[in-house]
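S.,

Sequence below, as promised.
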Amino acid sequence: MSLLAKLGAMLGWPLSVLIQPGSDFSLYSLATAFCVGVGFLAYRRRRRRGRVDWAVLARAVFSKRLALHRSTFADMGYFLINTLAVGGLIGWGLLSGAEVAKTTLAVLRAVFGPLAPLAGPDFALRAGMTLFLFLAYEFGYWLDHYLKHRVAFLWEMHKTHHAAEKLTPWTVWRVHPLDTLVFTNVLALVVGVAAGAATWAIGRDVSVFAVGGSNAILVFFIYAYVHLQHSQFWIPFTGTPGKIFMSPAHHQIHHSNDPAHFNRNMGSCLALWDWMFGTLEIPSVENPRLVYGVDQEGEDPHSVTTLLISPVRKSLSALIDALIPAAAAARAAMAQK
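The prediction came back faster than expected:
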């Protein structure tokens, strides 16, 4: 294989992420979300001031300080790292959601026996399965996120994402590859078990409505506003909608470095699980001008060492401390000297 062909093969996955309509980072969904964000800002300015100054709006949206910030460049670097790592570096460690579903189905049939196929229109069954597996995805996302904020060695990996000092859609890629590995396996387990259980209950295979292989409901939310969760657009959902849907402002609160906001709003598209489990913080109507980032103990939050190497070292230390209490005590004693 020629050097050019090898380069093309390496870049194939990052490019497919951008051009596949069902991708969670397609150019089409990015463009749609951008229009939603600009439209919301224009509507709010017109409502408050009676007109829209498009020049002022353009300066607010196309901020040079935001675009050229080192945090933004670090996010874009992680886009390449993660899109290349998915197929090469961590692919060996991924569970298969399909295999988990098959195993779950086999166990349920062995224990309880097969059920008669459920009668009903195919469209209704597919719609129900699509909604059920979307809710399972949302719960898996919330569970993974909750554990990473509560378990020390998982937090050390996840901290990389929260080290972003500016939020842009690229920030979604600012995730350590080992953090991605944990996330993907948690989702495979949760969604796989849910899919197997649903198939057993229905009595036959039922496919979901999908766009490019992704759940159609998830794709809808990605096009609607998920990209805006990592952005400068303060778009809050309050009242009852704020208890159900995870608005951009909800997630921006999640990234706040204010201790009052720590471990809040863990969901992806929905705030439903946060509401149920007591981790919900509904945003205010007015933009509180949050500050983002985490304390990195004097380290540069955007350096290669802090982004890739330090999380592994700190995560291993936290894991050893959890498994061997004496190691934690010895570390604390050394810190006091």
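The chain has one domain: 69-336.

Coffee later?
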